[in-house]
Every structure is written in structure tokens, then in C-alpha cells.
Known about the structure:
By secondary structure, this protein is mainly alpha-helical.
Amino acid sequence: MxxxxxxATEILVFRDIESKFRLSSQKPTHWLTFLLLVVFCPAxxxxxxxxxxxPAEIIKYSLDWLSPGKETLTAPIEVxxxxxxxxxxxxxxxxxxxxxxxxxxxxxxxxxQKKDRDLVLPLMQLGFEQTDSIKRRxxxxxxLKIYGEAPDYYGNNEKEWVRLLESFRRENVAEExxxxxEAFAINVIDSQTRILALLDKxxxxxSIPLDQRALASQTEKDxxxxxxxxxxxSLGWLKPALQYxxxxxxxxxxxxxxxxxxxxxxxEWKDLKEWAFSGVYWLWGGRLDKNVLENVVNWQAxxxxxxxxxxxxxxxxxxxxETIKKAEARPLSALEAFGFTDxxxxxxxxxxxxxxxxxxxLVFCSYIGTLTVEGTE
Length: 377
């Protein structure tokens, strides 16, 4: 089998920890060191197979767009989680927009399902385009007020929703700035979904307390939550939209781990390409060392600078075509086919943010194996 099935107990495994890192170093802990520690940490150090998620990582990918900012004197105690397709959430957001309820310091809008993503993605793109936080907050409150008065209308009329958002768009936005805003929006909602899936907070309304430990608890491998973890940690531009309950049931059937160090012949590469563009869940797997992981990051990060999943798929398709040509001469691993990172990506002002997104994806993905237990009969 060219592509490995998702294993029950681990997604990513890493080797040679002692030779790669000195854990007693006084230097700040590198993300790869932490990832290795997670995978190799004895089970007893995790409380009942639960992993604490750093609150800084949660806040990093949460939005403060509704907060009045300097007017807030108290420290945030939670991140509010809403869905624009949840009646109770819409009522609460409208009350905030009307000034009848206090705005949360931080919030996340769920996007795991297609109906939520279709509403949130253009809203997020608009928000990232607006660099003035006061104008962004004012626009968002007005948009939520209008949406709250007719959620079914805008929820079922994508063109009208986009037209509404366009009326709030900042004028004379440079094309490069617009593309980065669109890319950021995709990356942030994907990162948010990973956090919500790990913390089992996809249901709404919900909240993530910041005054206590945020725990990613264990999950059974035949559960819906396990499927959500697999879907949320796979490459975003290859996975299908989750629209119906049947789509969730198909997640594990369409999920595979890809070992970047395993050589494939030309026919295997063709099979892999055909599979990859059939609506799938691609996760990196195998026994990977520091060098391999850094190569994965450098190959994947440029995708995170591209403003749409359609264009990201096109880039992936071109990479497949180039790799297949090379594999005609000899078997080739993905690691060998990664090549050099293009200069345009490296000099991008958003390069470090893109790298951080991929690092988060790999670190969080490594948690899945630790948290997974066999299902009960």
C-alpha cells in the first residue's frame, strides 16, 4: 500500500531525540524540541492522556475584534466560541452589537462545517484587510447587527452576504495586501479549528476558560471527535467540504498518513496524485527527525501564503507533475522532491507567520496519537 492508513495510536513519530536536542539547554525551547518531548514523554506525565494546551497559543489564534481595547480594564477570563448558524449565538452576538451585552475580550467563530466556513471566511478576510482596529470593530458590530436581524436570509444567500461585506470593505487596498489578508483568513480559521477540535469545543455556544488549564482530553478512535481531529489537522486545501452527516462518516475512510521519507516509483506517485485530488485528508506521518520536519515546514509554508485553497491545490498539482517527471528516472521520496523554497516566499512579510502555522499544525497533529485510545464495544 503506497499510502498508510491512519494508525490507531500515533500520527507522527520522531527518532533520535537524545542526539538531536539537549534538553538541559538554557536556550528557549525550540518548537521541534517540544514536539519531540510530546511524542516521547512517558504516559504517566500526562494526566489520563490529557495534554495542556498553552493559553498563549489559544489567544494567538483568537480574535479581539469585538473588544473595546484600552477601555477594558480586567484580564480576559475566557475565549467565547460562536457559530453564525447557531440561533443562541446569533442572538448573543446581536445583543453585543446592540450594546445590550458586554463584548468578549476574545472570540472564535467556528468553521468546521461548510455552512459556517462560507459565512466566516469572507468576514475574516474583510477583518484582516482593515488595519484600523476601531474601524474594524465598528464595521463588525454593524455587520453582526444586520446579520442578526436576518440570519436565515444571509445564511442561505451567499451572494447577498458577500455584497453586504463588500459595502464595508476598505477602499484602495493594495492587491498584495488583499492577497495576504485572504491567506491569513484561511490560515487562522484552520488553526482555530485545530484548537477547538483538540479541546472538544466545536459545539456552540461554547467557551475556552483562560483562568484554568485548557486540556485536550483523550478520545476513542471510532468517535466523531477522533474524526474531527483527523479532519482539522490535515492539509486544508485537499480536504472536502463537510456539509452533511455522511461527510463526517467518510473522514476516516478518506484519511491517510504520508511518510515524506519513503521513496515511491512513478506509478505510485501517479496513484498518490489521483488520490490527493479526490477530496481527502492528508496528514504527515512516519519516523521523522528534526531535519525532515524542517523540510516539511519549508515546503508547506509557501502554500499558506497563497490567498485561496483553489490556488493552493494548483500549486500542489504542479509539484506532483514535476515530481512524477523526476520519478520516471528513479524512485523518489517527497523529501527529495520538496526542492528549495522559492525566494518570493522567503522574502514575504508573512513568511514567519506561515511557518508558525505549519509548526502548530505538526505539533498539534502529534498530540492525536497520544490522546487516542481504543474504542469500547
